[in-house]
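Standup notes, protein team

Yesterday: finished cleaning the Denitrovibrio acetiphilus set.
Today: Peptidase M23 structure.
Blockers: none.

Input for Peptidase M23:
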Amino acid sequence: MIYPYFLLNKHVNVHPVVRLSGDPLMIILDESMVKELLEMSGDSEGINDCFDNFIKASGSSWAVGMYMENRESILSQYQQMAVDRRYYHLGIDICAPAGTPVYAPLDGVVYESGYEKGEGNYGGYAILRHAIGTSEPFYSMYGHMSVKTLPAEGAALKAGDMIAEIGDLHENGGWNHHTHIQIITEKGREQGYFFKGYCAESALPEIESLCPSPLPLITAGIFKVN
């Protein structure tokens, strides 16, 4: 059985990727927020404060950024995204303070961990490979993490083990405090999607076979089918 359908098996142990209280704010990059962020381009502290103030004003303590959101208005300033017009978000962002632990949702092995340098890139990251029962193996990626807390490559993690902590501004690619969580299939790995957090519009027809939505995995850990 392929991801995410095997998650319907009640015997599969799925753990929440974060342990945060209260309901999250759903962040949508509307015109006014985009304008404010663009005015602070290059000022990572100002950008982070903008997100923090936006979240606090809503009464929430954390927030979620959407899978498949078109972020051209923000990403067009980054050459690595603009060159191929890769503007569609392939992960789900969980925005929480630096130092927030992120946990393995499933048993897995650390396939790769390290640091991707460059403004607008991942900074600290970890990639887990999951092979659950007879399900088709796939990968989950966690970007913008604290380098000093990254797991060793080859380490076996159980569902609920800490992967790493959310990184601070000096090590997360210059973004606000958050982790980018992305699912990558074997086909997606072969096509280089470990380091493509966004795709071009031309890739949308086949994106389900490359980087399906992380939402079923994230919510299964909180709302497990009985």
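Follow-up from PR in the comments: The chain has six helices and twelve strands.
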